[in-house]
TrEMBL record:
<dbReference type="InterPro" id="IPR010992">
    <property type="entry name" value="IHF-like_DNA-bd_dom_sf"/>
</dbReference>
<protein>
    <submittedName>
        <fullName>HU family DNA-binding protein</fullName>
    </submittedName>
</protein>
<feature type="region of interest" description="Disordered">
    <location>
        <begin position="1"/>
        <end position="37"/>
    </location>
</feature>
<keyword id="KW-0226">DNA condensation</keyword>
<keyword id="KW-0238">DNA-binding</keyword>
<dbReference type="InterPro" id="IPR000119">
    <property type="entry name" value="Hist_DNA-bd"/>
</dbReference>
<dbReference type="Pfam" id="PF00216">
    <property type="entry name" value="Bac_DNA_binding"/>
</dbReference>
<dbReference type="GO" id="GO:0003677">
    <property type="term" value="F:DNA binding"/>
</dbReference>
<comment type="similarity">
    <text>Belongs to the bacterial histone-like protein family.</text>
</comment>
Length: 124
């Protein structure tokens, strides 16, 4: 067991640690982590009445496709009011497999990074 895990385990078992009832924990998590999916976005686009549901879905699909294709070609995508999406390279590194503590090599790869717009940060 690593030092960090032992420390977390000891802190969790401390009597000073506030215990949360299971129903309270799930309720507060549900309130703060509501996900808006594709259907929710399409519904909000349709509420204005300017477009139909199929038109809104087509526009959203096209926008996602344009963004993904731009990222695949290494371009940066700026979305005003939301942020800037870019692809960053990750270096190869050595990791530890949980449970067995075996050392494994994690290959180099790519990840999508977002720099959140200042207006969005300010308004959260």
């Amino acid at each position: 067991m690593t030092k960090a895990r032992r420390k977390a385990k000891n802190a969790a078992s401390s009597p000073a640690m506030k215990r949360v009832q299971p129903e309270q924990a799930s309720q507060s998590a549900a309130e703060t982590a509501e996900k808006v999916g594709k259907t929710g976005i399409v519904d909000r686009m349709v509420e204005g009445g300017a477009v139909t549901r199929s038109q809104a879905a087509s526009v959203l699909d096209a926008a996602v496709e344009v963004i993904v294709n731009a990222l695949r070609t290494g371009k940066t995508v700026g979305l005003p009011g939301l942020g800037t999406l870019s692809v960053k390279a990750t270096a190869a590194r050595i990791g530890v497999r949980p449970g067995t503590s075996d050392r494994i090599e994690i290959p180099a790869g790519k990840k999508v990074s977002i720099k959140v717009a200042a207006d969005l940060k300010k308004n959260l």
